[in-house]
Specification:
Distance between the termini: 133 Å
CATH architecture of one domain: 3-Layer(aba) Sandwich
InterPro entries: DnaA_dom, P-loop_NTPase
Number of helices: 10
Protein name: DNA replication protein DnaC
Shape: elongated
Pfam families: Bac_DnaA
Number of strands: 5
Strand order of the largest sheet: 2-3-4-1-5
CATH topology of one domain: Rossmann fold
Largest sheet: 5 strands, parallel
Helix content: 40-55%
Structural class: alpha/beta
């Protein structure tokens, strides 16, 4: 009995197509090839989708794009130690049980220009890129100003609606970075203490993490935030990082006294 292949060859000759290549494709091999191509397409689409999600998170975070570990100068012991703690915090996100076990608070404190905001931003950028963690960076003073103006019910600039939207983001975002906490403030007003304390407590319940950046020392910070708000912070798994190294910002006023410029030209209102 002729095989199927022989019958196909005979039919090809009868139709004048005897030059058909003498090849035979295995079904399993063809199927495996198509599956490989399909998997590659799916993987490519997933990578493109992940990139879009990461770009969207970066866009909503309001982070300075220059705040990365690559641009950070580790020129003092406090910065080196802070980077080590930051990397441990980031690495902990590999453990799902750690991420779901509680809320974590990092307090960066020290004088101006010591790199506090830079390292906080570097942590945020890496968490976004590596784990797609949602991040929101805000200066506390700007939030309080918006909160204050949101009570103007005669306003036509929709500030109240904008603040409600931001308030929802403050509660929902995975990592909230609050910068300039109590800047130029020895003590927040009582209603502000309550608002911030409630915000931190609600985030605590939902296992959301925070980074708080301040120029106060810890004792001054406790006084400035008030007991209710500071008790909210104590409920978190807290990491306290002190920045005491030199300022990284450029000097505008020179350290040495400047010589006075004495002009010998015309000076108005001279009394002869």
């Amino acid at each position: 009995m002729d095989s199927i292949k022989q019958k196909i060859d005979q039919l090809a000759k009868a139709l004048g197509k005897s030059n058909v290549p003498d090849t035979y494709t295995d079904y399993k091999e063809t199927r495996a090839q198509y599956e490989r191509l399909a998997n590659e397409d799916v993987k490519k689409l997933q990578q493109e989708s992940k990139l879009r999600r990461i770009q969207e998170i970066h866009g909503r975070s309001d982070l300075n794009p220059k705040w990365t570990f690559q641009t950070l100068v580790e020129d003092s012991d406090d910065v080196i130690e802070a980077v080590s703690i930051a990397q441990s915090f980031i690495a902990a996100h590999d453990d799902p049980s750690w991420r779901s076990s509680g809320s974590h608070m990092m307090i960066f404190y020290g004088d101006y220009g010591r790199g506090k905001s830079h390292i906080a931003g570097a942590i945020a950028h890496q968490l976004i890129d590596q784990y797609e963690i949602s991040v929101l960076y805000r200066q506390l003073s700007s939030l309080l100003e918006m909160r204050f103006f949101s009570y103007d019910y005669n306003a036509t600039d929709n500030v109240a609606e904008q603040f409600r939207e931001i308030q929802k983001e403050l509660l929902d975002v995975d990592l909230l970075i609050l910068d300039e906490v109590c800047v130029n403030e020895s003590m927040l007003k009582k209603n502000t203490q309550s608002w911030l304390g409630n915000l931190l407590r609600q985030r605590l319940v939902n296992n959301k993490n925070c980074i708080m950046i301040t120029n106060h020392n810890l004792a001054e910070l406790e006084n400035a935030l008030g007991k209710y708000c500071f008790e909210s912070i104590k409920e978190y798994d807290t990491y306290k990082v002190k920045f005491s190294g030199p300022s990284r910002r450029k000097e505008i006023v020179p350290q040495a006294p400047e010589a006075m410029n004495v002009s010998s030209g015309y000076q108005p209102n001279q009394v002869k």
